[in-house]
Amino acid sequence: MNPYFVLGLLVAAILAVGAWQQKKKAALYELSWGVQIFKTLTGRHFLLQLAGFAVFIAFWQLTVKTFSLPWFNRLPGPWECLMEWLSPDPAYGISIYTEDYYKHILFSTYRATTAFLLATLLGVPLGLLMGWSRKFYQYSFPLVELIRPIPPLAWVPLAILVLPGDEPAVIFVTFLVAFFVTTLNTLLGVESIDESYFRAARCLGADKQRLLLDVVLPGAMPFIFTGLQISMGAAWFSLVAGEMIAAQFGLGFLIWDSYSLIQYPVIIIGMITLGIIGWASSAVVRSIGRKLMAWRERELYGSGQSG
Amino acid sequence: MSKMSASNLKLLQPSPPQDGLACRATDGALSIKTVGKIYDPEGVHVEALRDCSLEIAAGEFVAIVGPSGCGKSTLLNIIAGFDNLTSGEILLDGCPLATTNTSPSPGPERVVVFQQGALFPWKTVIENVTYGPVVQGVMSRAEAIQRAREMLSRVGLKDIESSYPGQLSSGMQRRVEIIRALINNPKVLLLDEPFRAMDTVTKSASHQYLLELYSATGKTIFFITHDLEEAIFLADKVMVMTTRPGYIKKTLAVKLPRPRQYAMLAAPEFIAMKADLVGAVHEEAVKAFEAGEREMA
Predict the structure, then answer these.
(1) Cβ(A294)–Cβ(B167) below 8 Å
(2) Alpha carbon of A275: minimum distance to chain B alpha carbons (Å)
(3) What is the mean pLDDT of residues A237-245?
(4) Residues 12 through 41 of chain B touching chain A, CB cutoff 8 Å
(5) Contact between chains at A203 and B110 (C-beta distance less than 8 A)
(6) By the 8 A CB rule, do B237 and B253 touch?
(7) How remote is the C-alpha of A7 from its chain's centroid?
(8) Alpha-carbon gap: A147 to the closest alpha carbon of chain B (Å)
(9) Chain A partners of B165 at a C-beta cutoff of 8 Å?
(10) Candidates 3.30.559.10, 1.10.3720.10, 3.30.2000.10, 1.10.600.10; correct CATH number of A99-295?
């Protein structure tokens, strides 16, 4: 297949997703689909977003190719990277047609997801417990605060020594950062809950267990989900760092390996892929959060007028 | 604001408890005896209440007024069981509710309606209203929902049961919160400046439905405010609290007939009562202001 054909497919896919979203929006605002699309395309938001991308790509093209500035002239240009990415027969062995590309993506995604899920399963209960029980907070908070600032990469040697093999070590390092972000945001969430909700629940007859379920957990939910989004991002960046040091596959490994093999377009392909996957995973977390916190969504859009 | 007919109001009467003990008309007498409260966080000695005594008869509507920071809310928190007292005692229908050697514990026989509103934003209106009876185990969920629907529809809130509080106006939120309190059949309703943040129109509508609910249920009401007009308009007795350490300095019996009408706000006797209270509260406000300046200096 010709790269231009793929490019066309990609553009068509983006347009289809865009059109579908516009249709949803049109239904929401009770406009016709055509009017909604016109409003969006001529809206400030869309034009500014487009301008942002255009400025970025123009900067890349101008510095690297057009003027070939001294520090930039070793880098590949945007067009070169795009063509390599979409090529059925890539010069450096990585494009959307090669099996290896997906293997790297799969490995990284598997590691990041495992680490993220572990961090959520352990971090949310720990944060809730810290916020709920004064005593437990005093036990654990200083320890957490002392361990948290240690950069993830500093854990790599210990992780490799203690854990069997490189794989668990990379996951562990990824997990750590996500775990602290989740724990602290959950704790912050519990602390942010207005005292009067606790009081109201106790007035109405709730015991300590009910407080945990009916006030602490739902009350902390907005912060928990903010934390999970940050934790997802953090998982990706520490994962890539971990993969650069100790892994045989994964996008971090790919980027570092391409650097040593002087396959510069592959570095860019790896980076852009990370950007897309990172953005998509955050979007998934965000949409789950929205589903779980319908009350908040409605609160933000609902009427706050008095009457 | 929907007008409620007399027959509808009957339905607001809480159903008698299951064990057959009918809700006696004398329930809900509150006597507060020489209560003192000293806060002592990290050695900073603050005396919020000193020898504060007052009697509230069952079914009486009492408003407490006083300058900000005078200890009104402290007293409410002690009655509610959020805080302990350091001297004196509080009796509810003759039984000790708070003493110096009991640890405070809130309960559904004295429910608080909060200044900023404390409906759970993550629960719908019906979930909020049924929360008390369900969590106490006094009603099944189905019974509670039915009861809640009855009560909500009597105050014109039938159609919003699956809304979240964030979607409601502040006036509706407060109405729901009062219903959430009343469904527990409390002996005393504790209202902590519930209409403070409202605009004038919402406020006067809120007064109207609170008065209607009061005449329908006959609950004892302990109402904190710093709005003197509101206090006189709603209450049977208005009590003025002094600046810290707080105690009741003056009690004014409001002799206006019920149901209260807005025309009463312009009646000469209303104005005379207000003038009387303004004098008393102003004196305390000046004291509080000067004390504040001393602390700042």
Answers:
(1) no
(2) 34
(3) 85
(4) none
(5) yes
(6) yes
(7) 25
(8) 30
(9) 299
(10) 1.10.3720.10
Cβ neighbours for A102, distance < 8 A, ≥ 6 positions apart = none
| Interface touch A204/B184, C-beta < 8 Å | yes
ipTM: 0.85
Indicate yes or no: CB of A298 within 8 angstroms of CB of B166.
yes
Interface check for B208 against chain A (CB to CB < 8 A): the answer is no
Flag if B198 and A306 touch (Cβ within 8 Å).
yes
The full set of domains in chain B, from first to last, is: 27-53+71-106+225-257 (3.40.50.300)
Distance from CA of B88 to the nearest CA of A (A): 23
With beta carbons under 8 A apart, name residues in chain A contacting B164. Answer: 294-295, 298-299, 302
Tens of pLDDT along B241-258? 988 888 898 899 998 888
User: Where in chain A are the domains?
Assistant: 3-86, 99-295
Q: B108-156 pLDDT, tens per residue? A: 989 999 988 899 999 999 999 999 999 999 999 999 999 999 999 888 8
What does each C-alpha distance from B275 to B268, B281, B284 come to in angstroms? 10, 10, 15
Out of A11-15, B73-77, B287-291, which region has the weakest mean confidence (pLDDT)?
A: B287-291
Instruction: State whether residue B106 sits within 8 Å of chain A by CB.
Output: yes
